[in-house]
Amino acid sequence: MSGKPLPHVDEESKGYWEACGRHELRVQRCRACRELRFYPRAVCPGCMSSDVEWILCSGRGEVYTFTVTHQNHAPGFRENLPYVLAYVELEEGVQMLTEIVDCPPDDVRIGMPVEVSFEDVGANIAVPRFRPRS
Amino acid sequence: MSRAGIAIVCAYEHPTRWAPDKTAYQIAAEAARGALREAGLSFADVDGYACSGVGPIGVLSMCHHLNLQPDWLDSTSIGGSSFVAQVLHAAAAIRDGLCTTVLITYGSTAASDRFAVGTGGGTAGDPPDAFEGVYGPTVVGAYAMVAQRHMHQYGTTSEQLAEVAVTTRRHAALNPHAKYRDPISVDDVLASRIISSPLHLLDCCVISDGGGALVVTSDERARDLAKPPVRVLGGGVAVRHPGTGRRDITDIAARQSGARAFERSGVSHRDIDFCMIYDSFTITVVSTLENLGFCEPGEGGTFVEGGRIALGGELPLNLDGGGLSSNHPGMRGMFLVIEATRQLRGECGDRQVADARVALCHGTGGFLGIRHSGATLILGGS
Asked: Looking at the partner chain, which of B130, B131, B249 has a beta carbon nearest the beta carbon of A96?
């Protein structure tokens, strides 16, 4: 994990990262219009409400699209080539950018069922990635 | 949009592709000089100024460097499409009386600085970056994810994407300034190494140094200048991003900016004689053609086959050799407008499109599959 950037946690995003630290994947739902949103933010772009709750996700989803990265000069990533960058669509309906792990890169397919897998990267800090599920 | 006529009266591309002996500011200044001299103008005639850049190319510093004190400024920073958008902004400013003569410049030493434009990683620190940077996105990766989805949804093939690179290289052979001019084949593209699947090295634009400049003014002023004016007929600017997490990644900003450009110009697809389409990667061209409405979603792969986009074809595009073969110092939008202007003036020699009267330029900026901008500009010759 050395060299990769740590998640930047701020007032709007700490609810998400604190949940990740407990190995829970949570996304925001607006209490006013009931819309889910990812990534988290303080004001609902749909109805402008600030009233929000954090929904616990199943952690299951499928690969929406992906790329096997063979070149990235950035520290932390150049040592780990090739790796799979992907958008995963969660069962709850929102897409998130992530990495597919525990799978040979050439075996990744669009539509492949995946589940969340947390990697601890610091004290109470974990990054959600996804691995194949049967 | 065509209330009071606005014209591009100067368009100059710096010939350099490799300039370790120059600064980015110098390239921009040399390009400005080249453009202004074309029309018999000087810095004293400029009362509006626009620029954009990666790194430290700020509009205030550029004004200082060129010793400009204009009445109007634009530092739009939406990636490689910025200069296309700035032509539209300049047109609106001139029409509104904020200024009369706008200089737009670009200079970059990306190649000699060894700046890894597409595969350098890194994040800007804006809120969404926190949810992306930890996973190692690259520019090429963001476009590759669109290509992967396009192939899945529509059956588009690597061979079809390669056609774009092969055709563009054929055009580059006709441009003495192009960085790469030797012919390539579809097999060459497919045999080049994968940078970010499914995109190969030859699906990716080059990295070069370079720059250019444009001058925009009113039709009225354009009449007294040396070069035939090229009219700004209409345009549009748009963005696409994942929003709150639901998105069709094959729906790109060109759909919106293109629709606005056609509406505002009163021009139809049939009227377009050639296109200059930002070709950061081969998929960018295929996806842009679909979203601009030159073909249906999913038909872009077939559309680029069979010579349709080559000089002499039904819709020739990227006649200068594009970013794929001629030059790409990081933000190519400037060169789309320069080549379109020069084609519409009939100045392009071996690569001239016969009877070119109406052109469409489309710039894409940013990370196509993550967040990007699109700027469309429709131009007409005299």
From this structure: B131
B261 part of a folded domain: yes
Say which residue the tokens 């045999």 belong to.
Answer: B191
Q: Are A13 and B135 in contact (CB < 8 Å)? A: no
Would residue A77 count as lying in a domain? yes
- Note whether B98 and A62 are within 8 A (CB): no
A37 touches B: beta carbon within 8 Å: yes
Q: How far apart are CA B53 and CA B59, in angstroms?
A: 9
Joined tokens for residue B73: 């400024």
Strands B358-366 and B274-277: parallel
A6 touches chain B (CB under 8 A): yes
CATH number, residue B217: 3.40.47.10
Q: Provide the whole-model pTM.
A: 0.96
Q: How many structural domains is chain A composed of? A: 1
pLDDT bin (cut points 50, 70, 90) of residue B1 is very low
Residue A1 pLDDT greater than 50, yes or no: no
Rounded distance between C-alpha atoms, residue B318 and residue B196, angstroms:
24
pLDDT tens for residues B243-258? Answer: 999 999 999 999 999 9
Give me the number of domains chain B comprises.
1
In terms of residue numbers, what domain contains B286? 6-114+206-380
- From its phi and psi, is residue B321 left (phi > 0), alpha (psi between -120 and 50) or beta? left
Q: Is residue A2 part of a domain?
A: no
Task: Flag whether A70 is in a domain.
Answer: yes
Domain-located, residue A5: no
Query: What is the ipTM, given to two decimal places?
Result: 0.97
Classify the C-alpha dihedral A9-A14-A16-A18 as positive or negative: positive
B146 occurs within a structural domain? no
Amino acid at B1: M
CB distance B244–A67 less than 8 Å?
no
Q: What is the pLDDT of residues A26-66, one digit of tens each?
A: 999 999 999 999 999 999 999 999 999 999 999 999 999 99
CB neighbour class for B344 (10 Å; exposed up to 12, middle 13-18, buried from 19)? buried
Q: What is the amino acid identity at position B188?
A: D
User: What residues contact residue B355 under an 8 Å CB cut-off, 6+ apart?
Assistant: B273
CA distance B248 to B254: 14
Tokens of B273: 């004689």
Q: Which residues of B touch A85 (CB under 8 A)?
A: 135-138, 141, 145, 196
